[in-house]
Target: Citramalate synthase
Amino acid sequence: MMGERIYLYDTTLRDGAQTQDVDFSVADKIAIAQDLDRLGIDYVEGGWPGANPTDDAFFAEAPDLTRATFTAFGMTRRPGRSAANDPQLSALIQSRARSVCIVGKTWDFHVDVALNIPRDENLDLIRDSIAALRVAKGEALFDAEHFFDGYKRNPAYAASCIRAAFEAGARWVVLCDTNGGTLPHEIEAIVRTVIEEHGIPGDRLGIHCHNDTENAVANSIAAVRAGVRMVQGTINGLGERCGNANLVSLIPTLMLKMGYETGIRRADLPLLTQVSRAFDERLNRAPNRHAPYVGSSAFAHKGGLHVSAVEKDPSSYEHVEPDAVGNHRQIVVSDQAGRSNLIVRLREIGMEVDPKDERLPRLLDLVKQRDSEGYAYDTAEASFEMLVRRELGEVPKYFELLRFHVTDERRYNALGKLVVESEAVVRVRVGGEIRLEVAEGNGPVHALDLAMRKALEPCYPLLGDMRLSDYRVRILAAKAGTAAMTRVLIRSANGDGTEWSTLGVSTNIIEASVEALVDSFTCKLFKTGAEPRR
Amino acid sequence: MMGERIYLYDTTLRDGAQTQDVDFSVADKIAIAQDLDRLGIDYVEGGWPGANPTDDAFFAEAPDLTRATFTAFGMTRRPGRSAANDPQLSALIQSRARSVCIVGKTWDFHVDVALNIPRDENLDLIRDSIAALRVAKGEALFDAEHFFDGYKRNPAYAASCIRAAFEAGARWVVLCDTNGGTLPHEIEAIVRTVIEEHGIPGDRLGIHCHNDTENAVANSIAAVRAGVRMVQGTINGLGERCGNANLVSLIPTLMLKMGYETGIRRADLPLLTQVSRAFDERLNRAPNRHAPYVGSSAFAHKGGLHVSAVEKDPSSYEHVEPDAVGNHRQIVVSDQAGRSNLIVRLREIGMEVDPKDERLPRLLDLVKQRDSEGYAYDTAEASFEMLVRRELGEVPKYFELLRFHVTDERRYNALGKLVVESEAVVRVRVGGEIRLEVAEGNGPVHALDLAMRKALEPCYPLLGDMRLSDYRVRILAAKAGTAAMTRVLIRSANGDGTEWSTLGVSTNIIEASVEALVDSFTCKLFKTGAEPRR
Model:
């Protein structure tokens, strides 16, 4: 089995486009198709020409793919029409796709109820459509809809449907778990029967799974182990309901753990993390930090004893090398932090500290103390660094926020519309100078951010390059006899896209926000080596 | 196999607490343990007494669980100490847990490198610790760390470790895929060997999987099929790196598809969706709409032919009944479908509306419009009800907030301490009267809440019975060319514990908060049938 070839078929742009909340533009589709091609995916399914304006426009401007086969999706001809006379099939044939995949029924119940035609006629639909596409395009694929549910109820009929497609010349017959409810051992058993009893060879079979039981990846692997040689899926598991099989998880497992070859060159496998994250960025979704292989936490280590062991021998704590998929190791600090964990974390912010350094216990106590107050430093590395360096006396006093005053008021704006406007006044000491500034913003924190910039930028013009990129608030449940604490997390970004996170904790949301803001400005000044004003 | 009992062991509060971005407070831990108990989980692992202040405080206030076994986590005794003299084991024994689970090494490499002791001595560590705990607590469990990786390298040694635990009387020997890299077919094969060749019966074996290849659920199922009878996992798959096995996905598969019994009564299975979503709300994370079984999109269907077919026979398009897990079908896109969906939602808030009611299209447009603005009414049923009833003219004008003004200022308090104080002034019309009031609070929203109560309570004394129980803020990603929107969710509670949720959306956090506050007061007045002031 080692070294055998698995074909990868991406349906992000078609089945993935069914996801609630996802709308691809033509430009999105072009960029995603090019990313998939660059990675080395064998088939890129672009959509359904004739089904909607976006897909029509995309197929009209079809991108030039260098390695992937650009594929169109459609369905078997309508009952009561010849394949040659079916407008939908004609649109597929006319499209600029190099290959066409059509879906057809294989569950007797759906033939009876949804198509409402004799079961034998459905076999004709499949045969005629595949044959016509094969002649016209050279390659046709058949998606066997509801195959596993159909096979469980009426194996003979489901098998006759896929045999019709196979005998009509389908390059791939793709077994679909359309409702997503089939379990891995069922998939494996049914695929084996299809190959052994119904005589369709594995190198003509594909698998298409949905994640409704969280088994889409395992189901795809089970089918491959049973013999199929093509896998359909989507980037990051996009897809309707619970999503399709996640190619980003499947690819490294197939290549690094199961020894299969795909169209992806080994040297290109590290592109995977980047392709996955760029895809989420394009959809304006935060990448899933816990995603297998490619998430930013996928190789994170937390907890004292454990971390010193990871340092000794990563391979005994990591199931694959993070580099192999373009990811990297991350060491985090938290409540669980032991001394060795702290040392590693300090190393990450560029501080080499000897394990016997007498300042370590003090720092560890400080971090633990802050943790118990609600400071979650694993999400705010910049605040962690500022905390430590301040404690060690390394951070100059760039400025001091002496006083602030924020007002939020509902009033009529210049257009006569009732709005809430926020205004902040700050009094800041910068070197020997006291600066009093005021600014208006979208909300109290925005106003404070702007007012502080007005006060600081004349002395530190570098701050003009940074902006707030995210702001999150969480209320920490009150401990007995105290007020609830508010935790504010601020993410800041430079013009070049580099980001850092800071946090603040207080019973007052404004105070917590100010703390995070001050850390963010201070971190920026410290990192750029700004000279403190005297 | 039908009807056999699988034991469920939840480690959300211990292994789940290792998740980056997650920090449980003691109050969180208590509430989550109670939810798990109510659902019917067999074991609730609370944490590691002695390891950190949060776990110490939690075990000191250990909740009274009615059905679940409250369990503590720890590790085998240290080398060179007797079990009786090991402070860590003593802390476990002294804890209020009814059962203890300890982790120990089973991979020879880790014994050599991490423990740095002779391999036989590790067997003594395991035996002594399990025996001591079993005597002291009546029940001990053994987590066999790195078992699968260890077994692949040195099966004899890994087997001798778990046999030591078994022979010392461990109720459960839990095989852990600590690094998360093992695939389902490997898990199944190794578990079968453990049972058949190493003689540990399946009803004494558990499985503990991580999701590093997106196979944690499938790996757990594979182990159960091979014979283990206990499954460890977490709510929503929380856990370090890529997470632990997701109990929320596993439970319905085990019970509804594989025919196993668990500690969860069939009639309680519909609690699952609520437990899953409440957990995310507690962590201030958006529930994953694509989550298997419990996600809001898990049973979503798009318009067109498909939907009428779903209505004819849901079972041919849905792998399980949504009701069975407390979820519901969602029909999207077509106006016709949207209308019946709306009727269902109205019924949920106690309004029976005829499908032909001429007000429905107007309501549907309103809800769609609000949805597109970021109002997520599925988390704020009270705001949904107020929206609909206001549109239908059913909500009296109890009061009108004419103007407000909030200030937040850093200043010295009466004790000479630098604090941030928030003060709100409101001008409210109640009947024919205009009331101007001011109040101070912990933050701007707290101050507004108090000021509004001062203005309203003299007219509506009922409001004295309610309080804010939670306040959450989420920033919604900006669409092209617009400012980011802020969504505020407020949870309010009556003295008797009944709760309701309201929301507000605006570019300004204060405006969004005020909107949610006004909805909350209005809802309270409406629900108690208050007479509006004239």
Remarks:
- The CA atoms of residues 392 and 486 of chain A lie 27 Å apart.
- Chain A touches chain B through 112 residues (CB under 8 Å).
- Chain A has three domains: 7-282, 300-372, 400-527.
- Chain A has a mean pLDDT of 90.
